Amino acid sequence: MKATALLRYTDIDHPDAVFDTTLPNPPAPTGHDLLVRVHAVSVNQLDNRVRRPKDKVEPAPRVIGYDAAGIVQAVGPDVTLFQPGDAVYYSGDPSRPGSHAELQLVDERIVGRAPATLSMAEAAALPLASLTAWELLFDRLRVQPGRSILIVGAAGGVGSMAVQFAARVAQLEVIATASRPESAAWVRSMGAHHIVDHTGDIAAQLAAAGHPQVDYVVLLADTDRYFETAAAAVAPQGAIGLAVEATQPANIGLLWDKSVTLVWEMVYTRIDYRTSDLDRQHAILNQIAALFDHGVLASPVTSYLAPINATNLRAAHKHMASGRAIGKLVLEGFPA
User: Fold this and answer.
1) Cα–Cα–Cα angle for 292, 296, 302, nearest 5°?
2) Residue 237 burial by CB count (10 A; 0-12/13-18/19+): exposed, middle or buried?
3) With CB atoms 3.0 to 4.6 Å apart as the test, which of 191, 195, 237, 242 could cross-link to 167 if both were Cys?
4) Which DSSP symbol is given to 255?
């Protein structure tokens, strides 16, 4: 099968960063596995974090990639949720070969039925960003309708879905951050009610918008930089949700007097620890697909590249690393 892989962890411009190759097809699926023919993938910030330079060399080509949409080719003996021919989408398992290959094995319990109203490319844009946003809002923060939320880092892939889920599903008053006219216009199109510039005085802008304090704050960018801002902005007995790992100790004492709840989301927790509710991600993806099919949600795709090869993946990684990405970038089809 055709694939794009890496051996070394280097700067994206290095010849060994990613390369096109041919690899053996995966073995026949066993247990709860599906064998999926990948039609489209998307690139996330996670791809750059995994590929970033480090002193390590893989013994064999490693395929990465954490979002895919495709068609089930075969199923393991324990599979009950899908059958060959089904269109599916998923964010995969970091401990297994990734989606940048024509064929991939994936556990059915972390796979959803692809939205019928979206293309394969549009479906591939959704899983990681949607699962992160959904789990953070509904599983971790347990948001309640009619309240207010500040979303920092709202124009990216996770932000695009978090804004939509908050505004269109949870019925929250959404204040989203954006620093450029194009990113501000994007988050408004996703459903944000107010925009604040995260490069300016966020507290003053919240007050001007009529929300000097908010019930929830979601940090989707630079926890180190914005934690104190979040602590000041959140209302007494409110909650802060983090989706970006802190690299410095956070002063949780800032939350004490207000009895603020602090939660965080790592989308692969259920997969990494094989939790008893592993199939929760299957249910979430199916629910999100239904929301798209009923016209509640809008595609976050802003850029397309074809085919899925090293040249286009290099361009995609650079785009994600620029800090100016809006929405989602997807790649479709393998070279003939």
Assistant:
1) 65
2) exposed
3) 191
4) G
Domain parsing of the chain, residue ranges:
2-125+275-332, 129-267
CA distance 233 to 217: 8
- Please tell me if the domain spanning 2-125+275-332 has the same topology as the one spanning 129-267: no
Q: Could you confirm whether domain 129-267 is CATH 3.20.20.150?
A: no
- CA 151, chain centre distance (Å): 15
What's the pTM value of the predicted model, to 2 decimals? 0.96
Q: Name the residue type at position 317.
A: H
Cα-Cα end-to-end distance for the chain: 11
Distance CA 151, CA 174 (A): 7
**CA–CA distance, 33 with 130 (Å, rounded to integer):** 22
Q: How far is CA 181 from the centre of its chain?
A: 23
pLDDT digits (tens, 9 = 90+) for 45-76: 888 888 888 888 899 999 999 999 999 999 99
Q: What phi and psi values does residue 186 have, to the nearest 5 degrees?
A: -65, -50
Beta strands 2-9 and 54-62, pairing class? antiparallel
Give the ranges where 18-164 is alpha helix by DSSP (H): 45-51, 120-124, 127-134, 157-164
The count of other CB atoms within 10 Å of the CB of residue 258 is 15
pLDDT in tens, 276-326: 999 999 999 999 999 999 999 999 999 999 999 999 999 998 888 877 789
What does DSSP assign to residue 253? G
Residue 307, preceding peptide bond in cis (omega within 30° of 0): yes
Pick the CATH number of 2-125+275-332 from 3.90.180.10, 3.40.50.720, 3.40.50.2030, 3.20.20.370: 3.90.180.10
CA distance 266 to 286: 20
What are the pLDDT digits (tens) for 211-225?
Answer: 999 999 999 988 999
Largest CA distance in the chain: 62
Calpha distance 264→136 (Å, rounded): 7
